[in-house]
Amino acid sequence: MCEIIEKKKVLSCIQPSGMLTLGNYLGALKNWVNMQEEFDCTFAVADLHAITVRQEPAKLRQQIYSTFALLLALGLDPQKSTLFIQSQVPEHSALSWVLSCNTQFGEMARMTQFKDKSAKHSDNINVGLFSYPVLMAADILLYKPNFVPVGADQKQHLEIARDIAERFNRIYGDVFTVPEAYIPKAGARVMSLQNPDKKMSKSDDNANSWVAILDDRDTIIRKFKRAVTDSGSGIYMSEDKKGISNLITIYGAITGKTTQEVEKEFEGKGYGDFKLAVGEAVADELAPIKANFDKIIADKSELERLFKDGAQRAEKVARKTYFKAMKKVGFVL
Ligand code: TYM
Fold first, then answer.
1. Å from CA of 132 to ligand 1 middle
2. What is the distance between the terminal CA atoms of the chain, rounded to a whole angstrom?
3. pLDDT of 85 over the 80 cut
4. Measuring CA to CA, which residue among 299, 298, 289, 303 is closest to residue 88?
5. Theoretical Cys-Cys bridge with 190: which of 23, 141, 297, 311, CB 3.0 to 4.6 Å?
6. 304: Cβ–Cβ under 8 A, 6 or more apart, which residues?
7. Under 8 Å CB-to-CB from 181, ≥6 apart: which residues?
């Protein structure tokens, strides 16, 4: 007798805001690709989240296309994983409302990302920016995933999603799976190359502080050569060597080597040699992604076919969970 073992489920999303960075890649995307064989995966471009910050419509549209194309360029396979665009599955917004009414104001007010973003965009502290983690909870809970692969900066949002799921199940009966965060050991928090106290982020005004997944080889190597280090010497992980520690983490996450192996490899070498080696390793890893991307983005109609098909498949799953939740709350269907 052949026993059918159901694969565990994975869901994650990425915002289509600006260039995606090496931080996005090491914190999340690289894992997505690694997980697609073993798990039943669903990945989305979280375009609804992007408008919590003011976006230029034409630019947003173009970034949604290019982020979707990048997912394919990374090696995510629409035959194996469901790949879609969040706004094309209306259950996300609809469930978000129901979940909002089951989330406390105080819970949202604690979110550190809200505090950071509202300080940065003080002219546009909109309600969406505040309630964004509820939409993120809806994104997750609709698909009943067991694991959500994200970088460390999303951990707090994941915890809220778990709290919301547990509370809803307690009040209305079992509807949602309570998911686990899946955070990589190396690369969960890639820091800025110019200020290793800050997370690497595409919204950083200093373009030398981040590496885009689609940067060309020379740009990547130049950015690593300019990376800020301390004035000492020695290549080892230490609290007072944050720049070097960040580069060790990046090199380890790219090559799969442990911290000890990296330290040993560069024993007695200078900072210059090390920065060049990290830049080259990153450039080698990202080059095929860029080559794939350039081909994929050129065929807009194929992209449209793929994201429409992905949205249909996603909606089938989302609608089931959504209707179940609505029924439990007491709506007439
Ligand atoms: P976003 O779009 O800011 O980032 C996408 C993923 O990249 C990770 N990441 C990093 N990891 C390590 N080091 C960094 N410097 C770094 N910068 C970004 C993030 O942790 C994330 O995993 N709210 C989410 C998107 C989202 C989502 C969801 C995620 C919407 N709905 C449902 C999971 C499940 C966000 O803004 O990620």
1. 13
2. 41
3. yes
4. 303
5. 23
6. none
7. 147, 148, 150, 154, 155, 158, 159
The finding on whether 24 has its CB within 6 A of some atom of ligand 1 is: yes
| Mean pLDDT over each residue of the chain, to the nearest integer | 95
User: Per-residue pLDDT tens for 137-148?
Assistant: 999 999 999 999
User: How far, in Å, CA of 66 to CA of 196, rounded?
Assistant: 28
Nearest CA to ligand 1 atom 6: 24
What is the 197 CA–ligand 1 centroid distance (Å)? 18
- Beta strand extents in 187-238 (DSSP E only): none
Helix, strand, or coil here: 143?
Answer: coil
Phi, psi of 147 (to 5 degrees): -130, 145
Q: Average pLDDT for residues 195-224, to the nearest whole number? A: 94
> Nearest 5°: phi and psi at 44?
-135, 155
What span, in angstroms and rounded, lies between the C-alpha atoms of 222 and 234? 21
User: What is the C-alpha to C-alpha distance for residues 333 and 321, in angstroms, rounded to an integer?
Assistant: 13
Nearest to 210 by CA among 197, 194, 225: 194
**Is residue 117 annotated as part of the catalytic site, yes or no?**
yes
Amino acid at 265: E
| Tokens describing residue 60 | 């947003």
Residue nearest to atom 14 of ligand 1 (CA): 23
Sheet strands side by side (includes 82-85): 82-85, 40-45, 9-14, 147-149, 180-182
Q: Decide whether any atom of ligand 1 lies within 6 Å of the 49 Cβ.
A: yes
Check whether 2 has a pLDDT greater than 80.
no
Partnered with residue 12 across adjacent β-strands are: 43
- The first and second tokens of residue 314, run together, are 């996603």
Task: For ligand 1, atom 24, name the residue with the nearest CA.
Answer: 14
Which domains can be identified in the chain, with CATH numbers?
A: 9-187+300-329 (3.40.50.620), 207-294 (1.10.240.10)
Q: Cα(332) to centroid of ligand 1, in Å?
A: 36
**Residue 10 one-letter amino acid:** V
If you measure from the C-alpha of residue 194 to the centroid of ligand 1, how many angstroms do you get, rounded to a whole number? 21
Q: Is 185 a catalytic site residue?
A: no
